[in-house]
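Record type: ASSEMBLY
Status: queued
Input:
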Amino acid sequence: MEDYTENIEKGKSLRYYAYRRFRRHKLAVSALFFLIFIILIALFAPLISPYNPDRQLLEFSAKPPMFESLAFTRTEGGMEKVVPVKQLVKESWDSIVYLDYTGKQISTDKENIKMHGTEFIYKMKFVLGTDKFGRDILSRLIYGARISLSVGLISQSIALLIGVFLGSIAGYYRGASDKVIMWLVNVVWAFPSILLVIAISIVLGKGYWQAFVAIGLTGWVDIARVIRGQIISIRESEYVEAARAAGFGNLRIILRHVLPNSFSPVIVTSTVGLANAIIFESSLSFLGLGVQPPTASWGQMVFDGYRFLITGTNFGMVLFPSLAILLTVFAVNLIGDGIRDAFDPKLKK
Amino acid sequence: MLIIFGVLTVSFILTFMLPGDPAKMMLGQRADEESVQSVRKELGLDKPFYEQYVSFITRAARFDLGKSYITNRDVASTILEKFPATIILSIVAMIFAAFIGILAGVISSIKLYTFYDYISTVISLFGISIPQFVLALLMVYIFGAELKWFPISGYIDNGWQYIILPAFALALRPMAITARITRTSMLEVLGKDYVKTARAKGLSEFKVVFKHALRNALNPTVTALSSSFAATLGGVFFIEYIFNWPGIGSLAMDSIMKLDFPMIQGSILFSALVFVVINFLVDISYAYLDPKVKLG
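Status: finished
Output:
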């Protein structure tokens, strides 16, 4: 007797092949690394950021990228204050004579001045320039990543939760509950989503959590549609019939058999949703409805720069936050593309 | 019809929940209590929720959307006045999107995996990824302020140049979607037997691509274009606002900035209605002119 079992290749799961195909998608993989990079920046913002993102130094208003200046830190009643120095005139062991940005010559003793390393006077460098309040654009970008990513992720989780819940009920039970849920889906879908997001956040009031609730309450519709469609096709399949014949309850069938099999289109839909959520967040901040100042957010930075645009001082005020939004959304979309191709059996090479 | 009813209900609930007292907003913060009360009565704000709801629905059915808090103008007529500007902008944008999007998709599909295909894929992903307000601002800066090719703000009655930038900004997203869908469906069609037959007959490549392949590949493209037309009509807010285009979008944005609630409610409601009606028309038109039947 020959043993045939040796020659049978062990079957691999769909996810295994999907993972292998995703890895071959070079653009998507680099996008994934880029997104991880942004997430790390957001997580470790306080460590990476060169300066305090909210500190205003009006002397440095709207300076171009790579702007440098001397400065020293003075302690006044327990508070630290950065004093910009236009030009150092004389430094002796106990005092500093300098020109400030109005051109006035000022002399000060070193008693209240904090050492910065080994020097009293140190150099500040603004790699991406400053905004009109003299805040460091790079630091604000780094902190802004926290807002964009967290609002995007939380709102998308809300959308997923609502969408999966309503979508599976509609798809699995059909009948009256399906009709009601699909009616709601169509109603929400009819509103231009950005207007709905704006309206809900006006109702809830401006702010951080209001932003992601508003975006989440708008974004679930697509997910509910996709889930419902998937479930309608899956519930007729043999393995669901088998599970039902085995006497399993509805909840168990939905959670263990139906949902895992409708996994991939949902992931693709929610990456698109995540990209849109980041766009919505920045749009809300652009309108002043999102996170409130002085907290840095990318959309607000674009708006602040926009008001300066016509006079054309530091174009980086608009350009850099725009690029940050664009690249992040671009990366998320690329990853979504990669996942879709990876799970598409028609594209098997 | 049921959906329109739902749309009305959602907009009513949203407005009902809006913070702030409309009567105080109309009269200004320093109004005395007596006149605030009389205005509340006049607006029906002293009635309970369901009575306000019923009166809202009956008024909306007559297209009476109330008056602006700020200008005291009739909301419905203001919206109708602004609507043509939005339609013109959307149509021009859709023409851009269809023309350039289909062309880019076709070229991509016949020059598959070349430098061109790669560039066009990346550009269309950018087109999907860029927020409208960012795109509009960049265009204002690059083509308006720096290169000075086109005017950056104003309506078409000043000259045709005024529509170029806003229409292009509005077109980029549908253009990107069109290009991607056309590419995919062209790829599918190009492998079909009738395309091979056409080639074997010795037809020129141009004829094969545009007469035989493209016609059959257009079906999903048309679907995408018509649904993005509805989305475009509802998505003009930032573009109109930044380019100062006097349509529904800038009306809505202005009212949001000024917290003019009847105007906000009116423009949201109107945009949703337009969306529902256009999708309905598109659905009907499919039944009448299935491109496969007509062109085949």
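Annotation: The mean pLDDT of chain A is 81.
Annotation: DSSP finds twelve helices and seven strands in chain A.
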